[in-house]
Specification:
- By secondary structure, the protein is an alpha+beta fold.
- It has one domain: Umud Fragment, subunit A.
- The chain is 21% helix and 26% strand.
- The protein is built from 4 helices and 12 strands.
- 23% of the residues are buried.
Length: 232
């Protein structure tokens, strides 16, 4: 005689299976990410919420699997999400501009790769051309518009924000090790023009207040025209 299971046990088992599936998906296939800063403007705006493809840069296959699985290395132009080389608990998003073996140089704010100027006018912007290099300015700011030449080591990537004048990127913290890459930005599933969290924990009260403001402004402050926009 088959023992009849209670409906509560069935619900519990279904929830456990769903949780395991979501955890697996978020870890190995698709992850969500939101933009807390303007370093990738105007490609990505503060408040954009993204899906990140974590599968595309998966472990390299060998033999027959290599031609069947859609794995590949990071390529120039890819917008990648990665763990910060300076603070691995923090996720960042930038555009890969050079790969291992490339020579990078910035001359008067113009990027050069392997001795040739890069035609990046379709995505790169310069919103603050005056770096404000006074006597007391951070000397690293000089790297913003004039950098290198620098040879990217093997197994690393040189990443920059599209908002070139306001991006803390490889010009300042160096090349990105390949093992810190989490995935490629895929598309925007929601864009919110209201107040966006900085990603730092500011207490339960602040979190609840942010959720309340988002709920109230969901329809009026959402940028619906950016919904399901592919990221290029």
């Amino acid at each position: 005689m088959v023992e009849e299971r209670s409906i509560w046990r069935e619900y519990l088992e279904a929830l456990i299976i769903a949780a395991i599936f979501l955890l697996f998906t978020n870890t190995f296939v698709i992850q969500t990410f939101y933009i807390p800063s303007g370093s990738m403007e105007d490609t990505l705006l503060i408040g954009d919420h993204l899906f990140v493809n974590r599968f595309i840069y998966g472990p390299r296959a060998t033999g027959a699997e290599e031609s069947l699985l859609p794995f590949r290395s990071v390529e120039r132009g890819d917008i990648v999400v990665f763990r910060s080389p300076e603070n691995p608990t923090l996720d960042l998003v930038k555009r890969c501009m050079a790969v291992g073996g490339d020579r990078v140089e910035v001359i008067d704010a113009q990027l050069h790769i392997n001795g040739k100027p890069v035609n990046d006018a379709s995505y790169a912007v310069h919103k603050n051309p005056d770096p404000g290099l006074g006597a007391f300015a951070d000397p690293r700011m000089r790297l913003r518009d004039n950098y290198g030449p620098y040879d990217v080591p093997a197994g690393h990537y040189f990443c920059m924000g599209d908002n070139r004048d306001n991006s803390y990127d490889s010009r300042f913290w160096g090349p990105l090790p390949a093992h810190l890459v989490k995935g490629r930005a895929l598309f925007i599933y929601w864009s919110y023009g209201g107040k966006t969290s900085t990603g730092q924990w500011e207490g339960l009260g602040a979190k609840l207040r942010d959720l309340g403001e988002t709920a109230v402004g969901f329809f009026s402050k959402s940028r619906w025209e950016r919904t399901f926009r592919l990221i290029r």
